[in-house]
Structures are given as structure tokens and as C-alpha cells.
Amino acid sequence: MYINKSCNIVKKHGIIPIRIESSLDGIKRKETDLAVIPLMNISEREYHVKTEVVFFLKRHNIPSNLLTFRDQIDLKALKENVETKLELVLVDHHNLADEDTYLMDSVVKIIDHRPQDKRWPWPGREIHLESVGSCATLVARNLFDKHAEIIDSQISSLLRGPILVDTCNFSKEADRATPVDVEIVESLEKVGLSDLDRDKVFNEIVKAKSDISELTIDDLLIKDLKVIVGIPIVGLPMLVKDFLDLQGAHLESLGNFAKCKNTTIVVLMGMQLNAQEISRDIAVFSSHANRLRDKIIEALMASTQPSLELSLIRKIHQEDGDVNLFLYEQRNLRATRKQILPIIRDTVSLECRC
């Protein structure tokens, strides 16, 4: 099993039931010497920044020493070993980072709820690609379809939590949930959950996700990070405007972060959840004025699919007068990162071909 680098609550909890499903599939096929390993695509030292994941797994009596992290296993060696056959299941993504393209022919199955990336068609693979509110919904549906008898209260709880988070607890304002998400959660709740109070579970996870008391600025920048066509897209558990007010969250720290990622541009996306209320903002930082930054901002402002409804609320200048950071309120609360990423990806790809 192989999950993407943001490695948030959906990915971590979804792959545990997938591990069970894959093991049972192997038994049905009468396979021997089969090892199914849920692989977290982050290093072990990064695990602590996933505060909501640490909380939720502890709640289900799953300690970190039962998890396998990317720096604990050598996929290249496994792939090159003639005595083993490496098969990968991609969970909550369907593309590979440049450094992982050598794994392409080992991918046998994909489970994702993102829009299809035409550059990654994956012919001949088992594909579960559907636009639902949560990837955990697809994981749960597969499990109900193939091995419903093994779904107990523990597995049900592990799957329902991520769906509640991904759909913002079925908030009408967020409008993320689909009828499939609703149906699956209702089916999971019929299994016999010990805690049927959705609001309570959702609020506990959100509180854990928002707990930054033990995190540094650098931790926050990698807590929910995606890198697309060389541009870091930082997801924050707070609004960007509040992040910028934290001690140490100055332009120099963003510049150092960009330098470590071999870029001059960083996009920051903030979200604040209070009960059923959602707020979003987005910022574009650059260590110096450049055409690519301007093109990204132009594309975000001009986008109609979706329209982000951006309103400039702040500019931060460096000493020579150049603007380093543009901060916007995002009034379209339904537009999520998975919808914004393609805008940035296409803009950068087009600009870099010029």
C-alpha cells in the first residue's frame, strides 16, 4: 500500500481496512507467502506533526510502533529483488512523484476521489476513481461489497471518522458530501458504533488537528504539504492570516522553506472550522517578484471552474518595496485544495513550456 505525502487522517485510517481487504483477497486466491504492508508515505520523524492522526489512532489503540513509515522500508530493493513480487495500491492519489516513477509498473490498484489526471490513465489496473467527499467512502464501499462480514465497530469507527472530517461533518455550507458518502456512513453506523454522536467525533478530531501547541513553524509548513510541479502547496490547520501572526512566521521563514524546496514560490491555503462555520483564505509567497508568481495569482483570480471568489486583504512588502506575499480571502467555501491544485499545476506547466 502506498499513500500520498500529505498522509492525513483519511490516508492513514483508510489503509488499515484496505490492508485487511487485500489480505482476505489473497486468501481467496490461495496465495502463499503474502505480506500486506500499509505504508505511510512520510518519515517516522514527521509523524508527530499529524496531530489529528496521532490522536485518532491512539483512540483506537494503534500505537506508532505498529505503523510502517517510508524511511523504514526500501521499496527499490524490494522491486529489484527477483525473489519477491512488489505490488502497490495507491490510496487517495493516482499519480507518482518524480522520484517514485520507478514504481509505476508495480502499481496494481488505485483508490482515489480526485478528478482524473489525464497524464496518469493507468491502463490495465484495477481502478476505483470516483468524485465523492472522502476517499474513505470508497474504501468502505469496497469492503462492504467484498468482505462485509469482517466490518466490526473498530473498523467502522476508523472509516467513519475520516469521512466526517473530509465532508466537514456533512456541512451544507462546505457542500462536500455526496449521496454515496451519506449512504456509507449510515451503513457504518448500523454496525454498532460505541459513539454515534457525529458532532462529538468530528469536533474531537478537528480540535486535535488544530492543536499546534507542540509544533514549530517548520512543523506547520509540512503538516499537510503537497508539492505539485515543483510548487509547495501548504495546507494549514488555521487561516493563513492567523498563521502570519504567529511568532516566527515571518517572510524569512517562508523564504528558507522555499529555498529548502528548491523554489522561490510557496502557496499557502488556510481553513478554520468552528462548529458548522467554515472560513478559507489563500496566500501566494515569492522570495522575489517574478512572472510565474504573477501568472499563478492571475490564474487563481480568473478561475471559473471553480470560481474561488478571491478578495485581496493584505500585501506584505520587503524592504526594497517589492511585494513578497499576497493574501486573499476565499469566499467560495466549497472550493477545496483538490480543485485548486489543477489550476496551479496547469498554469506552471504552461508557463514552464514557454
From TrEMBL:
InterPro entries membership: DHH_sf, DHHA2, DHHA2_dom_sf
GO annotations of cellular component type: cytoplasm
Gene3D superfamilies on file: DHHA2 domain, inorganic pyrophosphatase (n-terminal core)
SMART domains: DHHA2 (SM01131)
A single MF term (Gene Ontology): exopolyphosphatase activity
One Pfam family from the record: DHHA2
Domain DHHA2, chain residue ranges per copy: 202-348
Superkingdom to which the source organism belongs: Eukaryota
Record family assignment: Belongs to the PPase class C family. Prune subfamily.
Protein name, as recorded: Exopolyphosphatase PRUNE1 isoform X2
The species this protein was found in: Bombus terrestris
Upper classification of the organism: Eukaryota, Metazoa, Ecdysozoa, Arthropoda, Hexapoda
